Amino acid sequence: MSLELYNFLMKIKEMPGLYLGKSSLIYLKYFINGYSFRDWERNKDGEPFINAKEFEKYVTDMYGYDLSDPFKMTTRDSFGLIADDSVSDEEAFFKFFTILESYVKTTNPIC
User: Fold this and answer.
1) How is residue 32 annotated by DSSP?
2) Which domain holds residue 28?
3) Predicted local confidence at residue 78, as pLDDT
């Protein structure tokens, strides 16, 4: 994950209404997907700004799923797991950032 993206996500966390319209994990997912596509369009030969596989593994491990074990797999992505563990979309939005900050502290993925 680039420092540029991480800093921008922190701006979204502080002012979600400005960037997304409201505190919504669903809207944040759409935003990140669009950002990833834009990044892919610009850097087709380069490294992606978002290493979704590493974050996905972090979240699935955190929720007790093992993607290599067919009996402990899930079809839900990290956003779905976070949403399933939340009472509302707004709660899931803030939980995403708690998990993201833990991921960054634990794995130091920012380049």
Assistant:
1) H
2) 3-107
3) 84
